[in-house]
Amino acid sequence: MKVLELKGVSKSYRLRRFWGRGAELTVLREIDLTLHRNEVLGLVGESGCGKSTLARLALALERPDRGEMRFLGEPFWELPGRRRKSLRPGLQAVFQDPAASLNPRHKIEALITEPLRLQGVPRTEARERAAEMCRLVGLPEEVLSCFPHQLSGGQRQRVALARALIPEPAVVVLDEPTSALDVSVQAQILNLLVDLQKRFGMSYLFISHDLPVVLYLSHRVAVMYLGEIVELGPREVFFSGPLHPYTEALLAAIPGEGRSVKPLRGDPPSLLRRPPGCVFHPRCPEAGALCHREKPPLREISPGHLVACHKR
Ligand SMILES: Nc1ncnc2c1ncn2[C@@H]1O[C@H](COP(=O)(O)OP(=O)(O)OP(=O)(O)O)[C@@H](O)[C@H]1O
Ligand code: SF4
Ligand SMILES: [Mg+2]
After folding, report:
1. Atom of ligand 1 nearest to the CA of 45
2. What is the pTM of this model?
3. Quick one: 191 and 228 in the same domain?
């Protein structure tokens, strides 16, 4: 079953006073992405390619300029306001910086139970459920009476996770949830995420710039470049192939992989100067004349494996 669908979704922002004039920044271009029930879909790409923008659209925090967002089969933005409001608890998020996403003036109990209190759940029941969530995310119940600054970074991220999971969401969008944590804590949180996903059968959209982390956690992986999906497939294909030249470069950059792929040329391009044809052509070692002229469609090259490249 499809729990979340982005169909032909595009998103631009108007930048004022850029070189003295207004300019339009197209961040996402014609994104098609489906998240199934009980699935972890990984999204990987360089800094600035539009991952967090896509996260905000998937969470219905922003509306696409074009295209459609469907949640649990319903066209989210076409629904009456009350129906949209009733669906919102089903979409939850965990962001990179737990310190920034938790109000420092509130105690942990208030922070974890807030989604329940918004739904009108009585305080004693909400507290019992918060204590149960603490147990599930590996926090002692005593933290409920603490403030966020009294906890470590890893503990704060467990609080953010408890708060996201308490309304029993269908979808959790995890935007770089471990990037701000040190390596040993990172591994604990990743394992916890895997356990909780299996236990509750939720769907995750897991976003990271770190391909090994995405491959560890995800059932399917989408690779993004300059606001476009250039490859999408089950995690297994990322260990076999054939693959998009950008994905090959990402794989080659993993220490110890030892693949003989030419390194990426040049710097990451700017969204303000999106190259014509294939967006990757200025950095692609295989680029030919057609690549400069025509945008390659995202084609299915084997069941469930899609690649946007003229040469695959
Ligand atoms: N509200 C906005 N107004 C103008 N530009 C924006 C807005 N939101 C995002 N952008 C621009 O969109 C581009 C993509 O940003 P986004 O945060 O989605 O990238 P990202 O892939 O999440 O990067 P990172 O890995 O660094 O988190 C950036 O150039 C950013 O400046
Ligand atoms: S379409 Fe051409 S430029 Fe783009 S990735 Fe494929 S070979 Fe490289
Ligand atoms: Mg981001």
Report:
1. 21
2. 0.94
3. no
